[in-house]
Task: structure prediction
Amino acid sequence: MPSPSIELFAYPWDIADTGVAAFAAECRRLGVTRLHVTTLYHSGKFLLPRNGATKVALPAGGTAYVPLDGGSLGELAPAEDPLARAGWLEELAAEGLPLSAWTVFHHNSRIGGRRPDLTVRNAFGDSYPFALCPHHPEVRRYSVALARSIASLRVFDTLDLESIGWLGYEHGHHHEVAAGPIGPYEKFLLSLCFCPACAAVARADGLDLEALAARVRTLLLAKLAADDSGTRPHANMEQVAALVAQSPELQHLIRLRLEAVTGLVRDIVAAAGGAKVSVFTSSFVGSPGNIWMEGVALRALRDAVDGFHLLAYTPDTCAVNDDLLYCLSEVDDPARLNLTLNLGLPVTPALGDALAKIEFARRHGVRRFSFFNYGFLGSGRLEWIARIAAAVSKTG
Result:
């Protein structure tokens, strides 16, 4: 049985501001055996309690923090942060800790803002500028070229694919507001893409996507008009299941989406030059059990990729355990799962909550445990990693 692996996600600005040598030494002291380092990221506003240079970071969207081959990426080449060529990556690689390239693909407001023709469009024709559509040939070429460019740096032995499928309606856009009772059913329908690229793929496979879009509009308008139907968002996931079960057209679209992402990931694996590839189990859908909504099929990908990050970003230990059992049933091998925990509040109220999730996963054969995120955690919670590493090493 493999030894436990304690892994940490980190942003380049935190590594550089801490100092590469000091950062690597701290990671070793905490028992970290692998680092997942941002290569290209989306925008955000991040509170950094231990950073000595910046307390509130506002990274720009679609920005690279490693040197990429802009020529191969064409007009979609990301902006480069000054850190990209500041030498931190080479210095970190020299420290000897294994490195994974944590890379955001289709969550890219920089490209989406400049090229709305590449973005997801809902049934009403509204563009989501933060979300690129994986059915668009230009987006697919960009994603493969991005993976190839990162792999060619020869400092990462693994590529982590974040947002490799479709993003949806709810993904933390600026000042996001929905005053009506919007539940899983409404969010699912608002997340489906009906852009021209999707229509072309559907048409070639015998699906009338405009007819399906009209049906989705009717369903949504009926719900949105009745905003006095409840006093809180509906917990109506069962309505999603009923709708999909009874709609051959919707099943057809879902199949096309799953096939598109599976094919794209296989193309990325082929372009990675021998580097391993891992896929995140969710971007916007919450439970990994809903990752099909993003076009990601765990079972179809299990023999193509090295592993999956099971994003356990909920305080509900029972829900995390249930998600883990579901993912195990899909991938059939606990060695392919990496239980990824957010140690911050409100996701992890206390150290015992993290240990309970880890112990359940360990009993089911999982040996890889990742933690999010070096820069977000205060000193006390960062020290939890050392205590977790010690506990895991005792139990094996």
Remarks:
- The chain has 15 helices and 14 strands.
